[in-house]
Amino acid sequence: MKFFLFSVLAIGLGLATVDSVSSYNYYRLPTTLRPQKYYLRVLTLLENPEDLRFAGTVKILIEALQNTRNITLHSKNLTIDESQITLRQIGGEGRKENCVSSTSVNPSNDYFILNTCQELVAGNVYKLSLPFSADLSRPLTGYYRSSYKDPEANVTRWLSATQFEPALARKAFPCFDEPGYKASFVVTLGYHKNYTGLSNMPVKATKPHETLPNYIWCEFQESVPMSTYLVAYSVNQFSNKPSTLPNGALFRTWARPNAIDQCDYAAEFGPKVLQYYEELFGIKFPLPKIDQIALPDFSAGAMENWGLVTYRESTLLFSANHSSSADKQFLANVVAHELAHQWFGNLVTMNWWTDLWLNEGFATYVGSLGVNEIYPEWNSKDRRSLSSLLASFHLDALASSHPVSRPIEKVSEIEESFDTISYQKGSSVLRMMHLFLGEESFRSGLKSYLERYAYKNADQDNLWEAFTQAAHRNGALPKDYEIKTIMDSWTLQTGYPVLNVTRDYMARTAKLSQERYLRNTQLSPDLHVGCWWLPLSYTSKAEMMFMNTAPKSWMECSKAGESLSKTIQDLPSSDKWVIFNIQLASPYRVNYDNQNWKLLIETLNSEDYQSIHVINRAQLIDDVMNLAWTGEQDYETALQVTNYLQKEREILPWKPAFDQLKLLNRILRQTPNFGFFKRYMKKLLTPIYEHLNGLNDTFSSIQEQDEILLKTTVVSWACQYQVADCVPRAQEYFRRWRAEANPDENNPVPVNFRTTVYCSAIRYGTDEDWEFLWTRYKKSNVDSEKQTILTTLGCSKEVWILQRYLEMAFDSKGAIRKQDSSLCFQAVASGQVGFLLAKKYLIDNVDFIYKYYCAETKTMARFFSQISEQVISMRDLNGFKVFVNNSRQYLKDVHQAIEQTLETMLINVQWMDRNYHQLSRSIQRHL
C-alpha cells in the first residue's frame, strides 16, 4: 500500500523546465493581471511517517488588465512539471488557443514566470492550470506536518495544517501571493477516509477518489473573495465541540481527541464575542460557519484564517485543574483578537503590508473591547490598554524602532513588522482616537469604513476619511481638523513625544513643549526633533476631574511638521499639582518642573494617594522612572515616587513599577551594590505581600480578578527577593507534590501559584527536584501547564543543568517541540547564571540554530531581547558586535532585531556610566 501511494504521487514530479532566471526583480507583482477565482485540489498523504507529502493542481481564472506576454506569480519550494501546465482563454474576444512557451524563476522574490505563446489581451479571461507537489513542510510554515501521541493506541498520529501569513501560501500552491489580489477559492481536499478535512468554508460534497482505495475527495463551498494568506486547510483525526449560536454561523472548536475536554471554555467564549462584534460593527459575520482548531505544532500564537482560525494549544485549550486565571484571561484575549480579525483583516484587508497595523492594531484594541463586554468584572480593558502603552513606549524609545505604517520592500521586512509597534502601538493610537472622538463617532466611522471596503482592500487614508466624516457629522472634531492630519503624525513617524510642562506659578500658566523621547542619550539633538498632534487633557488637585478624557485643547503642528508653542491658562494656585494626559488617553510621556513633581510626590506619599486616578498613578511611575533613566529627572525624585508603592493595593501602578524594576534588577545584579537594591525591593514588597496573605491559598475568597492577578504577581516577586516566608512555603508546596502517590493526577500546588512554586523549588532545590518536574512535563496533557514547566525549569542555578537544558531544547528528536525551544532559551537567559550560558550558547551555535529553524526569520529574532537587556559593559557590547559581524549569513533577515539589540546594549552601558552610582546612593538613603 505504501509503495502504491508513493507511485501515484510520484507521477509528474519532474522539476519545471526553467529557461532562465528572470530579469524582473521588483519586489511587487506586475499589475497586468488579476486572479478572479482559484480551483485548488490537494491530495495529502499522511499514511507513511517517512514520506509525508502532498500533490495537487491549481486552476486560476485570470483577468488581463493590460496586454502582456507573461504571467508572473509566486511559488516557493514546489515541484512543478512544465509539461502538464495548460493555459487557455475562456472569456472575452477572440477565444484563441494559448499555451506556455517557457518559464523562468526569480528566487529572491519567489517568482515563477510563464511566458505565453500568444499575447494575453486586456479584458479577456484565461484559465491557467498548474500541477504541483512537495513534502509536507517540516518548518511550521506553508502546508506543514504536525503530530501528537495517541495514548490509547500508543501511536503517533500525523496531521497537516497551513500557516500562510504573511507570504507563505506560495509554499503550498502557485498563486498571486499578495494581500491586494483577492479572489474566491474552491478548495477540494483528498485524503484517507479515516481523516477529517477542514477548510475556510463548509463541506459541499464528498466522493471516492478515482484510483486510491479508501481515499476521498472533499469539496468545500466557494469562498467569499479573500487574500491568499487567509486560505486554510487541515487534514486530521480531531474531535470537535459544537457551540450554540442562535441565528448565526455554525461554530465548532477542534482539538485532538484526548484534549477535547479542554475546549469547553473557548467554545463558550468564542460565540459570545463573535456576536458582540456583529453588534459593534453592525455587520453580520459573513460566512456560514467558523471553526477554531488547536494545533499541537504552530509557529505563531494564533492565525485568523477566515472561517478556520488556527491556534497553539496553549492559546485555545483551558483546564480548570491546570490553567491559571492569567491563562484564562490570555486565552480570552487571543480568541477575541482573532475573531476581531474576521472583520479587520479578513472582510477589509490592507492593500499592502505597509499597513499591517490596520489588521493587528485594530484586532488588539477591538479584542480588548470584546473581552471587556463579555467579562466587565475582570476590569481587563484598562489593564490591556496600559500593557499596550508600556510595551510600545519601551520599544518605540529606540532610534531603531519604525513607524506604525512602515514601508515594506521585501518579505523579511514583512515578518519583522509583526511586532510591538504594529500590535501595541497600533492599538494605543486607536484607543487615543476612540477617546477623543467619543463613542458615537468612533462606532459610525468603523461601520462606514467596513461597509465601504467590504471584500476589498484599503489603506490608512481610507480609514482616516471615514472617521473624519463621522467626526464632522457628529461634531466630535472642529470642521478645520482632519483625522489624517492628526493621526499621520502618530503613524508615519517613528517614536513618541515627551510633553514638557513648565509652570509659572505666579501667572498660573504653563508653557508646553514637546520633543521625541529616546533612551539613547548620545544621539544627535536633531533626532529628538519631531511633532505630534497632542490631545491635551489635564486636571489638577483643585478639580480632580479624572473621568473626562476629552481634550480641553490641542498641541498642534505646523504644515511643515514643526511643533507650535502652547501656553495653558487658568491653572490652580502654586500649592496644587496638575496632571496632563488623563488616564493616559494618548501615548506620550509628561515631564513637569521640580515643584509640580514635589506636589505630586506629597500627595502620593500621603493617605490621599487614591485621589489621583489609578491609571495616572501608573503613568507617574513609568514616566519618572524612564525620565530618570535618561537623566531628564534624577533617581532621588523617582524613588520618592516609587516609595508610595508600600501603600498601593491596585495592580495597575504595580505593572509599570515591576517592568522598570526588572530592568534595573538585570543590570544591578551584576554589580557590587545589588544588596542595597534587594533590601529596597523587600521594603517595597513586604507590606503588600503581607496584605495579600502571602503564599497562602486565599483565592477562593477573592472576588476581583485584578486582586487575583496582583497576588499572583506580588508573590512571584516576593519569592525572587526572599521576602518573609515566601521561599520556604513554596518549597513546602513542592515537597507535598513530590510526596503524592500519583503526582500527575493530584497536584496540591494552587494553580495560580504554580509558576512561583516551581521556579522557587528549582532555584533552591536539588537535581531530583528538576528531574521530577521534567517528568511531569513529559506526562502532562495540558499545553499551558507544559509551558509553565518549561519556563520554570530554566530557574535552576546549576550550570550543568542549564547547559543540558539548552541542549535538550534544540534536540529535534527530544521531548520539547520546536515551537517551544525559544521559550526554553529565554527561560535560561532570563536568569543570572543562565544569561551567560545562553549568550555563549547562541554565539557558539548560531549556525546550528539557524539550520534548526530552517532560516525562519521571526523565530531567530526571539533570541535577542533577553540577551540585550543584560549586557552592561562596553567590552561585552564590542564582543557581541564581533559575533554579529562574523555571523552575518545567519542573521541577514533579522536586521531589525540585531539593530535593536545593539542599541539596547549601548543604552545599558550609558546607564552604568551615568546612573549607577547616583541610583546606588539614592537607594541607600531610602532603606
The CATH H-level homologous superfamily of one domain: tricorn interacting facor f3 domain
In spatial order, strands of the major sheet run: 5-8-3-2-11-14-13
Cα distance spanning the termini: 76 Å
CATH topology of one domain: Immunoglobulin-like
Question: What's the main sheet like?
Answer: 7 strands, mixed
Q: What is the helix fraction of residues, given as a range?
A: 40-55%
| Beta strand % | 15-25%
Mean pLDDT: 94
Task: Please provide a written account of the structure.
The protein is an alpha+beta fold and 927 residues long. Among the domains are: 2-237, Immunoglobulin-like (Sandwich), CATH 2.60.40.1730; 351-491, Neutral Protease Domain 2 (Neutral Protease, domain 2, Orthogonal Bundle); 497-615, Immunoglobulin-like (Sandwich), CATH 2.60.40; 690-775 and 782-796, no CATH class. It has 29 helices and 30 strands. It has a seven-stranded mixed β-sheet with strand order 5-8-3-2-11-14-13, with no helix packed on it. Strands 16-17-18-20-19 form a five-stranded mixed β-sheet. Strands 1-6-7-4 form a four-stranded mixed β-sheet, with no helix packed on it. The longest helix is centred in the last third of the chain and has 31 residues, at 895-925. Residues 1-19 have low confidence and may be disordered. It is found in: Cell membrane; Membrane. One of its GO terms (molecular function) is zinc ion binding. Its cofactor is Zn(2+). Residues 1-20 form the signal peptide.
